[in-house]
C-alpha cells in the first residue's frame, strides 16, 4: 500500500509539470582544447540550458553523479554584441550574426541551434547531457533532468585534450560603418570558468562569448609593424567602437568588455570596468537589488582575458607584428584596462594613451556633488555590486608587484599604489588627459596622482582642461595616434619629472562650485620631449637630445600662453635602459648637459645601486632649451671608479647644482651633489674678496644636500658664494637686492 501511494503522488507531481520538452540531436566536436556542443533548441523555449559532463554515458540513473559544467540562455547561438554592432536583422543587407564555430569547414549556427563550448582541463573521454527548465505546480520553475540518450545526451564520448584555445573568426573584411575603406576581422573567444596551463578562467560561467576585432594595416613595408589595443568605455561593442584612423604601420585591436546581463541596460548589457568581478557574482541575474559581496575573492577575469588575447595576437601575427611595439589606448572606463596593462605588465607595453580615466577608486569624497564615484554615487554603487564595498576591500587573485600576497581590490584600483609599487620599474611612456568638469571619473583624485608621477619619476606627459566626461570645453587636443609608433619596450627614453614650468592642478578642497581651483588648462611635464634618433646607449653610457616646446591647443593658440623661459629645468631619469645596466658598485657616474659644443652643466657621484633608487640615475634640474634653439644634449656615462686618482676623474668633484633664488632678498638655498663624504664650508665674500659670512657645515655624506644661507644682514650688492668641499672650491656669483 505504501509503495502504491508513493507511485500515485509521483505520477501526480509529474502530471503537474509543463515540460518544455528536451533538446534533440546533441552533437559534440573537439577542436583546439575545447569541445563544441551543438543541439536543436526546444521551439518557443525562453529559459536556460544546463550542461553536465561525466566520464561514463549519462543516463537517468547516474545524472546526479555528473559534474555541472555551466548554463547558457536559449538564444546563445546569436552573436548578440556583434549583431548589435552590425544592425543585424534591420534589413536584408544586415543579416543576423550567429556564432561561427569553425572556419574549415565553415560551420555557422542559426536560431534553431543551441551551443555550449567546454574548455577541456583533462585528457580523457567525456560524455555530455543538456537539460532545460520546466514549469511545475504553481508556476514554480524546475529543471527537467530527463535524459534521452541520442537526443539530449551523447552516446559516444568526446576524446578531450588540454591544448591552447583559439578564437574563431566570425567575419572578415567587414567595412567599418564610419569609414568603409577600413576593414574589420571579428573574432569570438569562448571563455569559461576553467583554468588550464594555456588558458585563464575568464568568468564565473562555464561558457561566455567575448568578441574582439583586428583591423589589419595594408601599408607595404619589409619591417614588422606596431599594434595598438583599444579599450572603450561603457556601452557599445568592439565593432562599433573600432578606431577609424588609418595609421600606416599600425595594426589595431578593438577589445570588448561586456557580459550578457541586461538588468541595467536592456540593449547594451553590462561591463566589468575592465577588471572582473567577485567569484560569487551572478553574471546573468545580478541587478540593483543584489547585495554587495562581503566574502570571496574578486577575480581579475577581464585582465586575464586581455592578456590572453595579447598572447594569441602575437602568436597569430608573429610574422607581421613586432612584440616590442604594443601600445594601449583607453577612454572613460576603458582607461582602466589600458592602465592595468601599462602598470601590471610594463615590460610588454611600449606606450599608453588615456583620456578621462578613473585613477583612484578609493577616493570617496570629491567636492563635486555630482561625482558618480562618490559615496552612493551611481558608478560606485554599481561597481560595489560586482566587487564589494570599499570598507570590505576584498582580496583579489592578482599578486602584488612588490611584497607577498595579493592586492585588495580597492588598493588595486588606486593607481598611486601601482605607481609606488613600480617606482624602480620602467613604465610605458604615458599620455594622459583629464577634465576638471568631469563628473563621472571626477577631478580631485587626479591631483595626488599628478604629484605621484613626479615623486616616482614615472615619466610621461600629463594634461588637463575644463572638459566634461563627454564633450565640454576641450582645450587639449587628442594625442595623434601615430605618436605611439615612436616607442618600443626595447628602446630607452628620458623620463621627465619636476618640470619648472609645470602648471598648478589646484588642491583637493573646493566645496564651492565649480569645485576646482588652480590652472584651468595645464600640464605636468607636457612641454618637454626628446629626439628619438639621438638616443645612443652603450654598456658605459647613455645620451639623448631633449628640448622644450609650446604645444598647440584646439583653438590654435600656443600653450603655455605666456611662452617659455630660455631654460626649462627638469629632472631626467633614463628609463628602459637596454645596455647601460649592471653598473658596478662604486663606479663614478658623470652627467653632462651640452648646448652645441658648450658644456653648461656637469656633476658626478659614486654609484651605489642600493642607495641610488635600485640603480636609478637622475640628472636633477637639467637646463633645457626650446627646440627652435637646438635643445640640449644630455650625456650620462661611467667616468671612473671610487678612490681612483687618475687624471680622468680628478675634475669630477662635488658641484652646486643650483643656487636660488638669484637675485635674492635674503634667503638662499644651495643644492649640493657630493661625490664622497667630505667637510663642507660655505663662505660669502664681496667682489673684492672681503669675507662677509662663513658657515661650517661639518662633514656631509655622499649624495644630495640642501644648504640654507641667509644674506639678509648684507647690504644690496654683488657677492661671491664659495662652496668648499674637501680641497675643492666652487664659486658662484649672486645678487642681493
Briefly, what CATH class of the largest domain? Answer: Alpha Beta
Report the helical percentage.
10-25%
N- and C-termini, Cα separation:
116 Å
Let me know the CATH homologous superfamily of the largest domain.
Alpha/Beta hydrolase fold, catalytic domain
Main beta sheet: strand number and arrangement? 11 strands, mixed
User: What's the CATH topology name of the largest domain?
Assistant: Rossmann fold
The whole-angstrom Rg is 32 Å
Global shape: elongated
- Name the structural class: mainly beta
Number of helices: 9
* β-strand number: 43
Count of spatially separate domains: 4
Q: Report the β-strand fraction as a percent range.
A: 35-45%
Show unreliable segments: 1-19, 643-653
Overall average pLDDT:
92
CATH architecture of the largest domain: 3-Layer(aba) Sandwich
Textual characterization of the structure:
With 737 residues, this protein is mainly β. It has four domains: 16-160, Sandwich (Immunoglobulin-like), CATH 2.60.40; 168-491, Alpha/Beta hydrolase fold, catalytic domain (Rossmann fold, 3-Layer(aba) Sandwich); 530-652, no CATH class; 654-737, Immunoglobulin-like (Sandwich). The strands form eleven sheets. Strands 11, 12, 13, 14, 15, 18, 19, 22, 23, 24 and 26 form an eleven-stranded mixed β-sheet that branches. Strands 27, 28, 29, 33, 34 and 36 form a six-stranded antiparallel β-sheet that branches. Strands 3, 4, 8, 9 and 10 form a five-stranded antiparallel β-sheet that branches. A hairpin with a 2-residue loop joins β28 (536-538) and β29. Mean pLDDT is 92; it is low at 1-19 and 643-653.
Amino acid at each position: 500500500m505504501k509503495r502504491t501511494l508513493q507511485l500515485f503522488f509521483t505520477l501526480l507531481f509529474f502530471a503537474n509539470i509543463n515540460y518544455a520538452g528536451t533538446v534533440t540531436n546533441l552533437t559534440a566536436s573537439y577542436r583546439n582544447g575545447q569541445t563544441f556542443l551543438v543541439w536543436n533548441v526546444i521551439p518557443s523555449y525562453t529559459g536556460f540550458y544546463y550542461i553536465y559532463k561525466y566520464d561514463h554515458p549519462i543516463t537517468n540513473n547516474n545524472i546526479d553523479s555528473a559534474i555541472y559544467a555551466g548554463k547558457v540562455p536559449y538564444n546563445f547561438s546569436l552573436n548578440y554584441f556583434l549583431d548589435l554592432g552590425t544592425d543585424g536583422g534591420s534589413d536584408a543587407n544586415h543579416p543576423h550574426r550567429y556564432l561561427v564555430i569553425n572556419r574549415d569547414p565553415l560551420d555557422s549556427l542559426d536560431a534553431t541551434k543551441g551551443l555550449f563550448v567546454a574548455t577541456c582541463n583533462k585528457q580523457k573521454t567525456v560524455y555530455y547531457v543538456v537539460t532545460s527548465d520546466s514549469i511545475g505546480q504553481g508556476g514554480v520553475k524546475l529543471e527537467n533532468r530527463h535524459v534521452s540518450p541520442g537526443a539530449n545526451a551523447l552516446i559516444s564520448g568526446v576524446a578531450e585534450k588540454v591544448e591552447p584555445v583559439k578564437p574563431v573568426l566570425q567575419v572578415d573584411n567587414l567595412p567599418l560603418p564610419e569609414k568603409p575603406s577600413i576593414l574589420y576581422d571579428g573574432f569570438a573567444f569562448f571563455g569559461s570558468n576553467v583554468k588550464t596551463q594555456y588558458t585563464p578562467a575568464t568568468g564565473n560561467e562555464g561558457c561566455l562569448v567575448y568578441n574582439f576585432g583586428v583591423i589589419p594595416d595594408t601599408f607595404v613595408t619589409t619591417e614588422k609593424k606596431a599594434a595598438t589595443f583599444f579599450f572603450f568605455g561603457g556601452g557599445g561593442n568592439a565593432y562599433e567602437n573600432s578606431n577609424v584612423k588609418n595609421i600606416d604601420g599600425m595594426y589595431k585591436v578593438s577589445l570588448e568588455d561586456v557580459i550578457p546581463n541586461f538588468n541595467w541596460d536592456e540593449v547594451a548589457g553590462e561591463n566589468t570596468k575592465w577588471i572582473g568581478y567577485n567569484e560569487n557574482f551572478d553574471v546573468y541575474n545580478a541587478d540593483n537589488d543584489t547585495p554587495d559581496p562581503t566574502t570571496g575573492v574578486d577575480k581579475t577575469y577581464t585582465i586575464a582575458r586581455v592578456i590572453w588575447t595579447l598572447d594569441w595576437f602575437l602568436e597569430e601575427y608573429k610574422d607581421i607584428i613586432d612584440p616590442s611595439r604594443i601600445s594601449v589606448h583607453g577612454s572613460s572606463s576603458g582607461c582602466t584596462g589600458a592602465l592595468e596593462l601599462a602598470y601590471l605588465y610594463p615590460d610588454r607595453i611600449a606606450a599608453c594613451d588615456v583620456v578621462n580615466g578613473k585613477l583612484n577608486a578609493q577616493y570617496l569624497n570629491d567636492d563635486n556633488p555630482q561625482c558618480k564615484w562618490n559615496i552612493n554615487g551611481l558608478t560606485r554603487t554599481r561597481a560595489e555590486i560586482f566587487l564589494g564595498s570599499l570598507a570590505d576591500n576584498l582580496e583579489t587573485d592578482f599578486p602584488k608587484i612588490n611584497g607577498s600576497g595579493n592586492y585588495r581590490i580597492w588598493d588595486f584600483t588606486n593607481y598611486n599604489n601601482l605607481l609606488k609599487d613600480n617606482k624602480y620599474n620602467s613604465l610605458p611612456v604615458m599620455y594622459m588627459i583629464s577634465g576638471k568638469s568631469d563628473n563621472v571619473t571626477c577631478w580631485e583624485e587626479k591631483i595626488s596622482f599628478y604629484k605621484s608621477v613626479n615623486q616616482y619619476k614615472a615619466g610621461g606627459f600629463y594634461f588637463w582642461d575644463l572638459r566634461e566626461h563627454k564633450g565640454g570645453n576641450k582645450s587639449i587636443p587628442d594625442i595623434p595616434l601615430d605618436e605611439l609608433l615612436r616607442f618600443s619596450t626595447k628602446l630607452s627614453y628620458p623620463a621627465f619629472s619636476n618640470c619648472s614650468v609645470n602648471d598648478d592642478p589646484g588642491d583637493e578642497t573646493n566645496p564651492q562650485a565649480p569645485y576646482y581651483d588652480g590652472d584651468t588648462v595645464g600640464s605636468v611635464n607636457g612641454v618637454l620631449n626628446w629626439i628619438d634618433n639621438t638616443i645612443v646607449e652603450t654598456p658605459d653610457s647613455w645620451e639623448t637630445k631633449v628640448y622644450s616646446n609650446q604645444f598647440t591647443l584646439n583653438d590654435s593658440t600656443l600653450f603655455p600662453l605666456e611662452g617659455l623661459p630660455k631654460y626649462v629645468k627638469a629632472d631626467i631619469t633614463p628609463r628602459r635602459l637596454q645596455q647601460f645596466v649592471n653598473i658596478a658598485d662604486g663606479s663614478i657616474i658623470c652627467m653632462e648637459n651640452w648646448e652645441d659644443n658648450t658644456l653648461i652643466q656637469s656633476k658626478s657621484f659614486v654609484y651605489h645601486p642600493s642607495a641610488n633608487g635600485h640603480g636609478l640615475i637622475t640628472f636633477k634640474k637639467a637646463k633645457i632649451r626650446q627646440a627652435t634653439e637646438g635643445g640640449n644634449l644630455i650625456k650620462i656615462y661611467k667616468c671612473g671608479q671610487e678612490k681612483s686618482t687618475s687624471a680622468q676623474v680628478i675634475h669630477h668633484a662635488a658641484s652646486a647644482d643650483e643656487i636660488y633664488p638669484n637675485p635674492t632678498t635674503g634667503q638662499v638655498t644651495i643644492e649640493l651633489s657630493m661625490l664622497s663624504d667630505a667637510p663642507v664650508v660655505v663662505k660669502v665674500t664681496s667682489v673684492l674678496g672681503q669675507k662677509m659670512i662663513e658657515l661650517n657645515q661639518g662633514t656631509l655624506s655622499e649624495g644630495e644636500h640642501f644648504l640654507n644661507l641667509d644674506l639678509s644682514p648684507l647690504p644690496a650688492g654683488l657677492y661671491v658664494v664659495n662652496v668648499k668641499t674637501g680641497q675643492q672650491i666652487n664659486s658662484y656669483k649672486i645678487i642681493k637686492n
